[in-house]
């Protein structure tokens, strides 16, 4: 069964000789509680502190440690406040580690006894974002979102992802648009227009209605006339 120990906030004085039986019993109980508290305090100390406070009463240990660490807590609180207010997300840096660090600073201030409201913490985080989040911050304030710090963290990281997609997609669109402006030039073959016929230039091509001036038939010229070729070979004509 657990025992509740009451820690005295002032030094115990000796019971008076004429104290009642109940008062003496209460005094003995408090002395026993002081020993128990002293043992618990020493058990949770580092060895160097155990040696230093081994013979010091529980209340005196409490008073001395409170005075010692109150100064350190004051300095830590000041440093934490400065770190929180001065936090800035640099261009090119990931948002997630930055926001997690700021949430940790808020939690630390609350642990040190300095209460930081959720609204103030949200404002400080939004203030720490760079200019590329200006549209996000404006929309956030316009809609007056009521979010926890973890929900805000998720929303900012999603916005960061969308901003990255927009930035990388713009050059691709420009490239596609630029490609449409240029047409592929036809390869120059060196041949004159209408000279695809392998025959010599100037010879041209015959048509069905072309008439041979030698034999009078249609569909060929004198230069390709078979009768003219045979007659010239046989010496029947010289022209």
Automatic annotation (TrEMBL):
Classification via InterPro entries: Znf_CCHC_sf
Pfam families in alphabetical order: Retrotran_gag_2 (PF14223)
GO MF term set: nucleic acid binding; zinc ion binding
Region Disordered, annotated ranges: 184-209
Gene3D superfamilies: Zinc finger, CCHC-type (4.10.60.10)
The protein, known as: CCHC-type domain-containing protein
Native organism: Lithospermum erythrorhizon
